[in-house]
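Case study 2.
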Amino acid sequence: MIDHRRKVFSMTLRYIVAALLVIFAVTPFFWVVATSMNPAKSLLGAKLIPDNLTLGNYGDLLNSKSFAFGLWMLNSFKVSFISVFFIVIITCVSAYALSRFRFTGKRGIMVAILILNVFPGILAMIAIYTLMQQLGTFIPGLGLNTHGGLIFIYVAGSMSINTLMVKSYIDTIAVELDESAMIEGATHWQTFWRIVFPVIQPIVVTVGILAFMTTYGDFIIANLLLKGNDKITVMVGIFQFTQQRFDTNWGIVTAGTVLAALPVVALFFSAQKHILGGLTSGAVKS
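Prediction:
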């Protein structure tokens, strides 16, 4: 009887803690949504359920001349989709080479990748800015205030940990599949593309989704490299809008925040099974 009461008490305590954590996590989101539908257009006196709900802030957002929200969203999608394409292709090819080929310096490369992941990316901000400033003098399309330069940094920064993750997945695939394809006369590229790549699609989808969420939601690097109003992404645009106005219209700002977050939220909930499957299916070696 005592053991049963202890179990009930333990489960009740866990549910209470879980409920408090959920409330703590979702309250800011609902507060932002409520503010975006608040006609007062201010954070002062905002309520989780405004007295007079309105979508006027969303209309003002889309029709605003000083708030180029549509252009900023297009810039974000452009940068993210192109970055994801190159991240997936380069990551998979690099991971296949590290998993299947033997060459001098292979172990050193993997150790270097692990060491680089120890240091936070914020430490490289000055180096990144200087590098892109100098690179722009030779290749204007990859310099400061260019989408090409931002994509270049995103792709380079996402290579390390993603490469090791995909390599670990490829390591679980029997080498005999590669050898059978080689015996039939297939090249290394044909073996990768026709044999290995279809098998690693779960981790490929995972890498692509995580890369999109990271690049789309990035603010620090985008704010560092992009300055022109026609070049900035949506996260940078929303921030700059709050800094350039003395009387910030928080109704428009929060409406932009909600609309900007919708693609990531929808992508996460629609693909969470793929993310979980991709991260765990390669964990057990077969």
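The longest helix spans residues 2-36.
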